[in-house]
Design a protein that fits this description.
This protein is an alpha/beta fold. Strands 3-4-5-2-1-6-7-11-12 form a nine-stranded mixed sheet, sandwiched between helices. The chain has a six-stranded parallel sheet with strand order 15-14-13-16-17-18, with helices on both faces. The chain has a three-stranded antiparallel sheet with strand order 8-10-9. Helix 4 packs across helix 5. The protein is elongated, with a radius of gyration of 24 Å.
Length: 493
């Protein structure tokens, strides 16, 4: 007679449908695309069965579109409308991707910035829930939604799908990547597009200053909330960082978790990066960095001298990135023996300011007002210091990428910058970067001067600092394991 208690019952893997508007290599406009392109694959390695769903945007390269297979077609109810939806499937690097096909909403030159973005994203959210009735071999345990574009999924689920078979056991996770963007639209859309005007709970929980707020809805309706660093998860409970959502985060703090993003370490690798003038490893970084610096100085028209500290900014040029602090001390900083190279696009006032400095000091300043991925690799490899004094930074990518190339970040202690950079300790000779606490220009200048002093006068300590930075582990593995643990906790409630 078999004693069943002596046998461990085999459990099926947790199934997650990961909804996101961007995923590299299909579509990427920023850090959201990096997450969509990296985290699902890392999650699959933890034993979680993850599939990704995103819109079939026109800008997806043809090489991927040609491989997509249509697996189902149906109509999506959206207010008074019934819209066509096709679901196409593609396997890429071991991950199954679903693409929501509707040319009326998605056959456009860019992913965002249209007058009907509220309707387009509502259609996508409704399609995600509708498609679960039509996918031939997959019904998830968890819907993991990302940023405001997917925020209506938990709302629609609770308001319109709870009587449908199997939907009652679905759980939802909502990740905030940047709270600045929330999806705020006219109140009239509640009835016209969402079909939720009859629901008192939806009307109340989406209401925001005379409008409706998609992200706010997800914060109320989701089972679990996450954001992209532990420090940011604490910051958004305060008025300074909370973007008018701080009270909700405080009220729901028991279900809020901060998990630091990773990066693709094979992509950000000076030993493998084919964009560099010369590749290098931690054991040869002094020679490799010197060669890359000389080559970049020559390409940019800066004085060719590897002994001059090269500072770089690789960023969107917006107020968030702390550029007002940089401009506030730049005259004084450029009195030092330094060079500054800026790579990025953004607000005209910042672009014009950096171009002005280049015109005045062409031997010291170069303003490359563009975004160019191969050039960003050259900047990371050639630079000695990355300036990233952000006003707020949910996670941040540039500081992690810079460290992989032995470029020392100078950051403000906020969000993911505080969680990823350990400040240099001169007494113990530890740390992997420099940081300062207050949003203050002269704190930034003092911190830069401390870094320059170490670079110039204690070069052995500087080199050790750079090697520690290069060897730091920013892989997605640790992040994925924390998400997998969160999923397990949610399923076993």
């Amino acid at each position: 007679m078999t004693n069943k208690s002596n046998h461990t019952q085999k459990t099926s893997p947790i199934k997650v449908l990961y909804a996101i508007f961007e995923a590299d290599p299909f579509i990427k406009t920023g850090g959201l695309g990096d997450v969509g392109g990296s985290l699902p694959a890392a999650l699959c390695k933890t034993g979680v069965q993850v599939r990704v769903i995103l819109p079939k945007l026109a800008s997806i390269p043809q090489e991927f579109k040609s491989r997509m297979i249509t697996i189902t077609q149906f109509e999506v109810p959206l207010g008074w409308r019934r819209q066509y939806c096709g679901i196409q499937m593609l396997r890429e690097k071991g991950v199954t991707y679903y693409f929501v096909d509707n040319e009326y909403y998605f056959k456009r030159s860019g992913p965002y910035g249209y007058e009907d973005d509220g309707e387009r994203t509502a259609f996508f959210c409704k399609s995600v829930l509708e498609c679960l009735q039509h996918l031939p071999d997959f019904f998830p345990d968890i819907l993991h939604c990302n940023d405001w574009h997917t925020a209506l999924i938990p709302v629609f689920l609770r308001e319109q799908y709870m009587e449908a078979p199997k939907y009652t056991r679905l759980r939802t996770v909502f990740s905030v990547h940047n709270l600045k963007f929330q999806g705020i639209f006219p109140k009239s859309m509640l009835a016209d597009v969402l079909g939720l005007a009859h629901s008192r709970s939806a009307s109340d929980q989406l209401a925001f200053e005379g409008s409706i707020n998609y992200l706010q809805g997800a914060l109320y309706y989701s089972d679990r909330l996450t954001t992209v660093s532990p420090t940011y998860a604490k910051e958004i409970r305060t008025a300074y960082y909370g973007e008018h959502m701080e009270e909700i985060f405080r009220r729901r703090s028991s279900v809020l978790t901060g998990i630091l993003n990773g990066i693709d370490q094979s992509k950000y690798s000076p030993a493998k990066d084919r964009c560099l003038y010369e590749r290098y490893r931690p054991s040869s970084f002094q020679q490799g960095k010197a060669a890359n610096k000389r080559a970049l100085q020559e390409e940019l028209g800066l004085k060719r001298d590897e002994s001059i500290p090269l500072l770089v900014i690789i960023s969107r040029l917006t107020e968030q990135k702390g550029l007002d602090l940089v401009l506030g001390i730049l005259d004084e900083l450029l009195c030092e023996r330094v060079q500054l190279a800026v790579l990025g696009v953004g607000d005209a006032k910042y672009e014009d300011a950096f171009r002005g400095y280049q015109a005045r000091m062409p031997q010291k300043v170069r303003a490359c007002m563009t975004f160019d991925a191969p050039m960003s690799s050259k900047f990371y490899a050639a630079a000695d210091i990355l300036l990233m004094p952000s006003k707020f930074e949910p996670c941040g990518l540039s500081q992690m990428a810079a460290m992989r190339y032995g470029t020392i970040p100078i950051v403000r202690e906020t969000g993911g910058l505080a969680d990823s950079v350990i400040a240099y300790n001169q007494y113990e000779d530890t740390g992997d970067g420099f940081s300062f606490a207050n949003y203050n220009a002269h704190e930034l200048l003092f911190t830069i001067k401390s870094a320059l002093d170490l670079y110039t006068n204690r070069r052995a300590s500087w080199d050790a600092l750079a090697v520690r930075a290069m060897k730091k582990n920013f892989s997605w593995k640790a992040s994925a394991e924390k998400y997998a643990a969160l999923y397990r906790d949610l399923i076993h409630l």
